[in-house]
Amino acid sequence: MLVNHNLNMTSDLVEGLVSSTKASISVILVLVYGYLLRKFGFLSQDGESNISRLGTKFLLPALLFTEIGPLATASNLKNYWPIIPLSLFYQCVALMVALISRLAGMPQHYVPMFIFNNVTSLPLLLISALAATGGLDPLVTDDRTLDSVVKAGRVYILINALVGNLTRFAMGPYLMKANAPQSSKAWFRSYHDHVEDDSLLSDSNQETGHIALLDEEDREPPSIKHRTLSSLNRAKEWIINAMNPPLTGGILAVAFGMIPWFHRELFGPGVLSPLSDSLNNVGKLFSALQMLVLGSHLFSKKGSKTQPFFLAWLFTYRFIIAPALSISVVYFIRTTWPNLLDNDPMLDYVLALSNVGPPALTLAAVAVMADLPSEVEGQVSRILTFSYAIQQVTPFISFPVTITLWMIKQTGVGN
Length: 415
Description:
Elements: H1 2-39, H2 45-68, H3 74-79, H4 83-103, H5 111-115, H6 121-133, H7 146-176, H8 182-199, H9 224-242, H10 245-258, H11 260-267, H12 273-283, H13 285-300, H14 308-336, H15 345-353, H16 363-369, H17 374-393, H18 398-411
Helix pairs in contact: 1-6, 1-13, 1-17, 1-18, 2-10, 2-12, 2-13, 2-16, 4-7, 6-7, 7-10, 7-15, 7-16, 8-9, 13-17, 14-15, 14-18, 15-18, 16-17
Transmembrane segments: 20-37, 83-103, 115-135, 155-175, 238-262, 311-333, 353-372, 384-408
Pfam families: Mem_trans
Subcellular location: Membrane
């Protein structure tokens, strides 16, 4: 029995390694294509810049709109609610780790790489490869076929991606750089000036032009109405400054998805379906073009030197600590509150592996939105490439896959 168990573990490990390697190779090859296109002059500097802006301002918002909209329903949020708080919990833990690392001197642009892993393309490729090689057979139950298991897994992955994409483009540009974007700086300056205007009264002196401060006892505090309106105006300005095209696309998808008529007519076979179909067609271009540009950056933006210690710490967290955290949390929930989650092994599988993997490739687009210096943007491109290369030549993904399958067997989910 022990021999059979060891053989099964070895087989699962090999299947996970093969599947993750295939997924990584497909990413690396597209990066190579982009590098060669830039090197041999098929892609110019202006072309590289234009594709980056096109992807960030149009293709990515279109992709998020068509990916998030069909899933943004009240029933999905009700049925799949455990995915949302767990996804946010993993991000909060990663944020705390990143902030502590900043105190040790880690560069600011590393912070979102700790928090936002690849939650869409890599998990979907991995689950498809595992299904083809028999890696998901242990999740098949008497009342569910392999096809239904894979379909459920895709839905769970996309719900997790919904959360990850919204938080990534809401927070990513601010976390990527130490200083806030120019618009936010301008807001803080206007806020500071406004506070001074509230606390200082001007005494116009036409001859001297001096502004005199009134004595403390002569100052009149602003009224409650004035303070409320002032706070609302500042909040409105902050929201406007914080919005970016990808975040806008995601928010619009949630808004239209939650309204039954729009959900049916826009994301179903309704009268507005040609609009969503067209956005879906152009949105699909983003992933390939983004990877081509990322590969082009490897040639055109040499990047500043990467400190090996921080790079090793990033990979240690993303490939070892993060999966250990998510698998442990799911195991704890399943053994402590067995009825809290649906009796679905695929749900446990996705929850355990949702925190696994390299930083998201879309962080290259976040770097563009953060308006980083060219050398830092080049370093971001190299770090993302290194992470997928490491995944390709190491079993860092296959170990969590194997341990997760073992954990599901131990808890008896689906039986």
